[in-house]
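>> received
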Amino acid sequence: MRLKKIRELIGDEILARDIITSDYQVILPEGSAIRKEYIEKLGELNIQEVYIRDDKKEDSGIVILKSGVERSIKKTVRDILERHTYQNNLELAELSIAADSIISTIIKEEHVIEKVFDIKERSADIYEHSISICSLAILTALKLGIENTVIHDIGVGCLLHDIGLRYMAVDYYNQDVDTLNKHQKSEYRKHPVYGYTSLKNENWISDLSKNIILYHHEWLDGSGFPLHMKKIPFECQVVNVCDIFDEKICGISCKRMKVYEAVEFLKSFKNILFDGKIVDAFLSFTAVYPVGSHVITNEGELAVVVSQNKEFHDRPVLLIIKDKNGNDVKGEVKKDLVQVHNIFIERAVD
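>> returned
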């Protein structure tokens, strides 16, 4: 992380800390790329210097956990899983402690149940993905009023849900598994069985956590895999919703989507593939357009999302960067879409 003067920026640097105005409004969040067209505007807003990351390509990851906690848990999970070999399971029990750390961190977050979280599309390996869906599933479970002992088992199941992928060599990143050849597709769809089989005789992991590993790709209409079940334990369904959402925004076993596209996917298959109550709980804390997203309004303006409205997740507060003619907007022009009823987001842009 480096402190850099605005005049020294060349564009595409990645923020290491939020850019905040004197009245504590976030202009651009940590992890955002500073586009060339933003540099002049930051100067107009009297922002003199910013903290940037040394590595431009570093992903911002999920924002539910504090960055220090997330880094520590990510290292623990990665180290344990990378050392793991099939049915050499004793060290995996340490992930139970990691799950409790995630749970306690989230519960300690002030007003966590009432917050809207900016969950962003990103690259992720299976370790980061497992931590992400653990956080998402814990939040969803809290929303649904599930008791803490069960939430613990959900957390452990999430951290281990994709362990079966460790036992196969199929490439599943940023591609639709349906495009794989018959053998590769069949092999990929066995990974829940591989994971479950490796842990089914372990006493330190609950039956619920084992079922999460086995059922995390099953859907309510029976079109999931590997067992094509229709009667799926409710807690497993919680994980399934979080898993498919994070897979889609990370490009795991599918082409990567924008967050708003993944949100629309869940809405479209609510009460078809996924329990509607679970989908509603998940979407109640998920911003459709995360802070830092770049969007086009129906008036043709280019804007960046700077904050969320709690009850209206698809109508955030925008900072207008360019007018409908493509000209730079001078000064700070914000539009709160809850207050300005005739403006809406037409589409997100890269």
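>> The longest helix spans residues 126-143.
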